[in-house]
Amino acid sequence: MTNARWIRITSSTNIPPREGRPVRLEDGREIAIFNLGDRFLAVDNRCPHSGGPLCDGIVTGASVVCPLHAWRINLQTGAVDRPGGAACVQSYPVRVDEGVVLVEVPDRAAIAKQGAAA
Known about the structure:
Layout: E1 4-11, E2 19-24, E3 30-35, E4 40-44, E5 58-60, E6 63-65, E7 72-74, E8 91-92, E9 94-97, E10 100-106, H1 108-117
Antiparallel strand pairs: 1-10, 2-3, 3-4, 4-8, 5-6, 6-7, 9-10
């Protein structure tokens, strides 16, 4: 990922297994960090359907089910499991370093450029 930086989020013990937590970034974006038990994944915190908070959804496997209308979001890719499958949310690389969860976040210009290329 170009034009990106790693941001320290929280201790890995602050997010229980099979749960998500919202994180507001300094530029105003809100992402959701999920603990799958064996790894952490991150996506934008708003469902593309009605803006439901994905961090409040039910984690099943490597997906989260939106709490508003049950759309299933793949936490690895951001793809929505719906007929046509066109909708998606941004997913972010995550790593855990010495018990601290870090997320690689592209700057806004990089996201806009990716969207224009799609």
